[in-house]
Design goal:
Helix content is 85%, strand content 0%. It contains eleven helices and no strands.
Length: 236
Amino acid sequence: MGSLRPTRIAGLLYLVVVVAGLMVLKVVPDHIIVAGDAAATANNLRASETLFRVATLVDLLAEVLFLIVVLALYRIFKGVHEGLAAVMVVFVVISLPIILIAVSFEIAAVSLVGSADLGSAFGRPQLDALASLLLDLHDKAQLVDVMLWGLWLFPLGALQLRSGFVPRVVGVLAIVAGAGYVLDLAISVVAPDATKALSGAASLAQAGELATVVWLLAARGDTSRAAAHRVVAVAG
């Protein structure tokens, strides 16, 4: 049983990261940000300041958990191909300072809208506009991070396909998920007007990442091909 625990713990942590990501990237922004209206966004931010600060903290903690998950995956797959496993970790490590910069923009934005002293010195409309700009910069920095979220899944998927102890469908879905993240970035940069229309397809592809979560939770510590087929049955 001892050999099973790290894999399942990694799966649980990965699941926490996914849920936290939905909260930070979807639920909270939809509740607070009003596109094209800096004043409304600032008012929402002031009204939900605690929620926003909690989401920011969750974002930071999720990044730490994500690094732990990736290091656990490195330990699992380094015997398959240490080079690919190292590349996987490198992509994630590169993403960390980017997300820290992005989060710093959020912290600055919420500090601006909540500052009475700055409001009297510079005027509330100016501060609201600056806070909105900082949130936009956060989104732009996060957009760069999206590319890395996709790129790390390519070596992971390749490792899963080569391993012999992970169902091949899990590896394929990881690669599809990686392509979904990269597609999301490409759409946002090349055709921003089409983002809403095409983001659904990218999000559907990204959902393939959940297959790895299921595998980690369902794995029984047996690295044989027979075990892989059992995991497929559980996932199905």
